[in-house]
Amino acid sequence: MRAEETNDFSLTVTSFYLKLTGLWPAVNLAEQRERRIAFGITISVMLSGLLIVSRELYFSIGISFEDTMFAMCNMVTVLIVLCKACVLHIKKKQFTELLAYSENHFWHTNYDACETVFLEECKKLCTAIICLFNFLAQSTSFSYIIEPIVVYFDTNASVRKLPINMYMDFLLKPYIYELTFLFQTVSLAAYGIGYLCVDNVMYITNYHAAAQFRILQYRISCITDLINTEKFSAASGSVPDCTADHCYTKFKECIRQHQMLIVYYNKVDQFFAIIVFVQILLFSLMLCLDGYLMLQDGGSPYRRMVFTIHISGCIFQLLMFTYSCDCVLQESMQVAESFYSIQWPVLPMNNSGEMLRTDMRLALIRARVPCCLTAGGFFTVSLETYTKVLSTAVSYFTLLRDY
User: Fold this and answer.
1) At what angle do helices 92-102 and 176-221 cross, to 10 degrees?
2) How far apart are CA 24 and CA 21, in angstroms?
3) Which of 78, 151, 197, 215 has its CA at 20 to 30 Å from residue 35's CA atom?
């Protein structure tokens, strides 16, 4: 994969994170060996983190309701990251095919001046979103270690606390405590990377697919541009048969591109369906738990800070995720509107002219069925999903506060 050769900063950052976790496709045996080692380390860290938060949840039940909610929130986050990594590893072949297709047909393709503008706007949007999302995700990870460090220095090292309580007193002994603290810090950083790298791929895929639909709309609108030249003026009524043949050839190229985009995004939907379903299913619970811990009376100010950052990241992630899906849905539907810009009435009624009129009706019918990302095939993800998830989270939060 030649992600490092592109000028797309978002793609470069995403490929770097995926290489760290061992999920980026390898191009030779040496890279394949490195990816396996990296993925083995990633899974080991994630499974150990799952064991830690499971132990924390087990011992916190019945002791402190706030600590139980804290442990449950950590458990949900760990399960989401582990699910993303496992699904991406299991579907590595599909992932490699999607990347290769995107690279050959989207990222390293020649475009004209107007199409380049569409692509550059897409790259700028991807860069802005991924930079902000990455900052929020890593800030949440490292905010866990602020409270233990502050407590450690405020008490002259007389009180020792780990970012995630493991309920093992021997871990607070000298040297063992420092090693455990270092391990948990590295684990939190790994979870931050694992949490965002798959979502980065999803954002890039959606926004680039939406840009390709915009490019397709532009190409469809330019099918009959030849008629507007002085030589073949529509007003003169002298459109030759060769012009109709040329327009029909361009029309067929646009139809092939549309078919290609439909097949491509259906594969994207199949690849991300499980991940999207798990995220949508657990987002309401995460937002509810974050809101409860952030507004808990008498809670730790450091813990409030952690979950203020966490809930901000979750809300932003959900918004950008649903917005990227909505962009594909809207732009794919706009393809139907672009057919109305074709000046088909002035084309002669030769074989090409008649075929263009007939095929355009069929293309209009198909274009009104949008391409969309679904949550496991159960429902379409759009901006409406964002409002529904927030509404459900508020309902859960109200019940939890009453409890």
Assistant:
1) 50
2) 8
3) 78
CB 38 within 8 A of CB 155: no
pTM: 0.84
Q: Which of 226, 64, 224 is nearest to 56 (CA)?
A: 64
Residue 377 backbone class (left: φ over 0; alpha: ψ -120 to 50; beta: rest): left
On the 0-12 / 13-18 / 19+ scale of CB atoms within 10 A, 358 is exposed
Using an 8 Å Cβ cutoff, are 163 and 177 in contact?
A: no
Q: Are 220 and 339 in contact (CB under 8 A)?
A: yes
Please name the amino acid found at residue 103. Answer: E
Nearest to 223, CA basis, from 201, 249, 200:
249
pLDDT per 10-residue tile (average), the chain, 403 residues: 63 85 82 85 84 82 74 81 83 84 76 82 87 82 78 71 74 76 82 82 89 89 67 53 76 89 90 85 77 67 75 82 89 87 76 82 86 84 85 74 62
**Cα 339-121-20 angle, rounded to 5 deg:** 120
* Number of C-beta neighbours around residue 325 at 10 A: 29
